[in-house]
Automatic annotation (TrEMBL):
Any single Pfam family the record assigns to this protein: BPL_LplA_LipB
UniProt lineage: Bacteria, Pseudomonadati, Bacteroidota, Sphingobacteriia, Sphingobacteriales
Domain called BPL/LPL catalytic: residue spans: 1-182
PANTHER family found in the cross-reference section: BIOTIN PROTEIN LIGASE, BIOTIN--PROTEIN LIGASE
Official protein name in the record: BirA family transcriptional regulator, biotin operon repressor / biotin-[acetyl-CoA-carboxylase] ligase
SUPFAM superfamilies registered for this protein in UniProt: Class II aaRS and biotin synthetases
A GO CC term attached to the entry: cytoplasm
Organism: Parapedobacter composti
NCBIfam families per UniProt: birA_ligase
InterPro entries per record: aa-tRNA-synth_II/BPL/LPL, Biotin_CoA_COase_ligase, BPL_LPL_catalytic
Domain of life from the UniProt record: Bacteria
Protein keywords: Ligase
GO molecular function annotations of the record: biotin--[biotin carboxyl-carrier protein] ligase activity
Cited PROSITE patterns: BPL_LPL_CATALYTIC
Length: 246
């Protein structure tokens, strides 16, 4: 993968761009990467905005066609991608990397990157998956209000990194995990994902239907729901139903 990289100097969102290209029924091959130098309307999860200083970070979308995966097992793709990013960063930075459910990438208590996967289904079958990835690379200037919760590769390496080289290495890591997923190594990947799960087994405040409640993050279910123990009462949630209070 990543052999087919299309670099755009300026684009609203690489996810949107890829989606539009696909709707023109362009025959794009699996593994196509859309890399943005300046992404000016980047999107995050839950309708959030993804801000990135022009030319300083990794903002790209990767086209996958995981037809081997039952759409009800979509979470397995989330696991494979998050794990690939975590493993690549651990090697690069020589630090432990955490995955904040479902797919925020953390170093310590700070977010270094995020993933936005958009699955395109045709009825009950896969058409494609647009895997959007944003990693903070050379940016060290962030809005004061969020600075203590954000980090970048430069915070650790203390020098600028080459975006193209990082992209190549990250795509190699993604290819490895994607092939493992294809070969059915789901259990092992889920175990490695859980090993890195941010706040696993810890008491933490969560926002549930607008109410702040303390709970212990117990586990992740098969389908990727977050399981929390509220003092003996165990419940599980999807991303729209629960948030970490930070
Ligand atoms: C999140 O943490 O909420 C997910 C952020 C995902 C950002 C990436 S940057 C490349 C791709 N294009 C987008 O518009 N978003 C993703």
């Amino acid at each position: 993968e990543g052999q087919n990289v299309i670099t755009l100097q300026q684009v609203d969102s690489t996810n949107e761009y890829l989606k539009k290209e696909l709707s023109k029924s362009r025959p794009l091959t699996e593994g196509t990467v859309i890399l943005a130098v300046h992404q000016f309307a980047g999107r995050g999860q839950q309708g959030a905005t993804w801000f990135s200083e022009p030319g300083r970070n990794l903002t790209f979308s990767l086209l996958l066609m995981p037809t081997f995966l039952n759409p009800k097992h979509q979470f397995r793709l989330t696991v494979a991608i998050s794990l690939a990013i975590a493993r690549w960063l651990e090697q690069l930075l020589s630090v432990g990397v955490k995955i904040k459910w479902p797919n925020d990438i953390y170093v310590g208590d700070r977010k270094i990157g995020g993933v936005l996967i958009e699955n395109i289904l045709k009825g009950k079958a896969w058409k494609s998956a647009i895997v959007g990835i944003g990693i903070n690379v050379n940016q060290t200037d962030f809005p004061a209000a969020i600075r203590r919760r954000i980090t970048s590769i430069k915070d650790y390496l203390r020098e600028d990194s080459d975006i193209g080289e990082l992209l190549t290495a990250l795509c190699r890591s993604i290819e490895r995990e994607y092939l493992a997923l294809k070969q059915g190594q789901t259990e092992a990947q889920l175990a490695s994902y859980k090993q890195r799960l941010y706040r696993l087994g810890e008491r933490h405040p969560f926002l549930v239907s607008g109410v702040k409640v303390d709970g212990i993050l117990l586990d992740i279910t098969e389908t990727g729901r977050l399981q929390i123990d509220f003092g003996g009462h165990v419940a599980d949630f999807d991303i729209k139903e629960v948030a970490f209070v930070i």
